[in-house]
Amino acid sequence: MSTDRPVAALDRAALLLQLVPYLLGKGEVSVAEAAAEFEVAPDQMRAMVERLTVIGLPGEQGYWQLPHDLFDIDWDLLDRDDVIAITNTVGLERSPRLTAREAAALLAGLQLARSLPGFGDSELVTGLLSKLARGASTAPAAVIVAPGPVDGVRDVVDEALRSRVAVTFTYRAPGAEPISRTVDPIKVHIANGQWYLQGWDHLRQAVRTFHLDRVGDARVTDIPAAHGADPVPELFAPADDEVVARFRFPREVAPLLADYLERAEIDDADDGRAVASLRLADEQSLKRLAARRGGEVELVEPAGARRAAAAWAAAGLAQYAHES
Amino acid sequence: MNLVVALMATEQGLTKDTILSSVAGYREQLEAGASKDALEKMFERDKESLRGLGVPIETIGNRADPDDLREARYRVPTAEYALPEDITFSPAEVALLNIAGGVWGSESLSADARSGLRKIRALGIAVDEPIIGYAPRIRVRDASFAALQRAIEQCRIVTFTYLRPGEARPRERRVQPLALVEYEARWHVYGYDLNVDADRTFLLSRIVGEVTLTRKGFPAELREGAGERALEGLRAVAERQRALLEVHPGTEAALRLDRRAEQAPQGIRVPYVDLHVFADELASYGPEVRVVEPADLRAEVIRRLEATLALHGGAE
């Protein structure tokens, strides 16, 4: 959310349409608070308000506009206290309708919010869906988010979150034996349809992230979650990834590799192909990537991953050996 | 902005001449000697920009001859401009909308959501305690999403190049786009495929290059209920297509597949929507899963594994 980006003329007009109802709703509001709400720098907010005061109704033929034909603010208040208060309006008092795009963005967000435990098909969501559709200036494009399968683990974690107690479960990390963990839940992330729990891990004495698909036998405890409000890092914060991997792929399948390519350096290769270089936490996932994109992605480095991919595919094929 | 205020304040509408000679912004230019032609162009541009912002501008034509725009009057009907008075939001609703508005990872949709939220918050509603503990996110990485969304809004036929898995080269498609659907974390566009005269669902990640909006439109009625139809279609396919799989317990494959599975006497049954997308996933599990049936899915998985083996130096 950049606050020092210059505001383009059209964006400025859109903001001004929203500014009047906002200021009227607030009564008095500090420049800083209004700037934060509109995601602009305080200077820009001040400029917007000043610009507002030269907007008004057309003057009578041949005369310039009279003061009451223009928007006005309490200038003393602005100069002295950095506070904005509108003193005269000539229109724009009501919030504009949502644009089709705004309504679509909120409608789709609501569908995802509906998958949160406790929000299911609640009247709250259904009511909002129809209000948003009705509040749009033109029909929003249908942007649908299908809810994924839900299981008991999510409900248990939700209950722990709400009652601010620790949750205990068996966790199976990739390629490791299951371990029993007790965690003060802090935040549940839902990304790409996957659910992750960030919480204070009693065993490691630190904040850890758990993929809920890897969680089993979850139970709510009666241990108060002492670290339930601890700060958490970004979900996929860059880590000290050690392995440098390189793979070759045909350009047209790039969209299918977006997960990897967005943090890779990409160089042209011959034949409409490209080579991606990126850092990874471990090379275990590469053989799975190669098999998933069977024949399209060729691992170049590390050599171990290349061999592992061949062995992985061969072991997979061995299961079908008696058939062919 | 002066234009909006002027057009909202008038009941019967203002003629172009009145606007150019009295509304601030045009008036100064006219007095400074700008040509009327240039000002009229400026007015047309401003009108279009405002419509783009969702400001409805009504043109009231000559009653005797509606096509004659020389005497046309322009106004902004307040009822269509403003959020209807009877739409109000409770504090709990605003709290939930705040979560809904924060889900977008992509910059443009996220800006749209925040701007929509601002309009709603400006209604001066108190907000419940924020709903804490949840951070749902939707990511849209497909470049074609924005163009398709615009095409749906404007009811315009699109063309794009689509690479169907299993086909050697991509093909040009001509589609009436009706809905965008995220299903199992992948974005699809549902629409009427004019090449085959039937409803089709396309994976956005298999669209190669740009989506082109043609000048040709389609009736807006086609969009009604399209989202539900698309979703039902995908669910019906998943209902029909169930693979029988043998999965090694305790593996990554078991973890990922069991949640979606039904137990069967010989292994598990997992529904799938797209043969190729599912074959991709199953191939990635290598020796952790064996496809019993259907035969076409098994063949696709074997083909991927063979190609992977061949590309990485073959068996040792």
Automatic annotation (TrEMBL), chain A:
Residues 13-133 form the PafC HTH domain. Pfam families: HTH_PafC, WCX, WYL. InterPro entries: CBASS_pafABC_assoc_protein (IPR051534), PafC-like (IPR028349), PafC_HTH (IPR043839), WCX_dom (IPR057727), WYL_dom (IPR026881). Residues 243-315 form the WCX domain. Residues 155-220 form the WYL domain. This is Transcriptional regulator, DeoR family.
